[in-house]
Design brief:
With 210 residues, the protein is of the alpha/beta class. Helix content is 28%, strand content 23%. The protein is globular, with a radius of gyration of 16 Å.
Length: 210
């Protein structure tokens, strides 16, 4: 997976921003799909952030950040822990390719699979992330990370009761797992599906402002 290319959407000025967000889209989507929402969020917090949105590579004609879980013949879910770690290493190289100003807070975040990737970046990494935003996602390879310490990062997580792509039960398991690792977590839930509502984007803006 090579992310060091020109297929990047950037919102804001990285030299002037107090916070830099690396944002990862959902499975099968692309970075342009989040440009309108991220522009609104940046506007709501007075253009204080720079948001960098790469595109995931194409896998079987679908953009994917890491290998999706597989279901075995006996119905068990098998996750590709090694594949996830390989993807995380490439994301780390991508982040390191940017020159950041002294004192800037670095945040990872995303939607759906991008949210899952972002949460996994808080484990087994050398980055000192200020925080993580996970919208309609889940904690991938939770068993693999069960004995790993989470980075001392703030987390904002949101999920809809009616999410048909990643169930609310998956959210509850993710939330419980994260709460076992850190107390620096803010959660928002509501009656919506696999999407980012206006209320969710407003909550993200409020969290970033704090």
């Amino acid at each position: 997976m090579n992310l060091n290319n020109n297929d990047i959407v950037t919102i804001g000025d990285i030299k002037k921003a107090s916070k830099v967000i690396f944002w990862f889209h959902g499975y099968g989507s692309n970075n342009w799909s989040f440009e309108p929402i991220m522009k609104v969020i940046n506007m709501q917090i007075n253009d204080e952030v720079c948001i960098i949105m790469p595109n995931a590579p194409l896998v079987d004609n679908k953009r994917s950040w890491y290998p999706l879980p597989m279901t075995s013949e006996n119905g068990l879910i098998k996750e590709d822990n090694e594949g996830l770690e390989t993807s995380k290493a490439e994301v780390s190289r991508f982040i390191n390719s940017f020159t950041l100003e002294k004192g800037q807070d670095v945040i990872v975040g995303g939607f759906s699979q991008g949210a899952a990737l972002s949460l996994s970046m808080l484990f087994n990494t050398s980055h000192n992330f200020y925080g993580c935003i996970a919208l309609s996602g889940y904690m991938p390879s939770a068993d693999y990370y069960k004995d790993s310490a989470i980075m001392n990062s703030r987390i904002f997580i949101a999920h809809g009761f009616s999410d048909q792509a990643i169930s609310f039960e998956d959210y509850k398991k993710t939330y419980e797992f994260l709460c076992s690792k850190t107390k620096e977590i803010v959660s928002y839930t509501g009656d919506f599906g696999h999407t980012v509502t206006k209320d969710v984007s407003n909550k993200v803006s409020e969290w970033l402002s704090k």
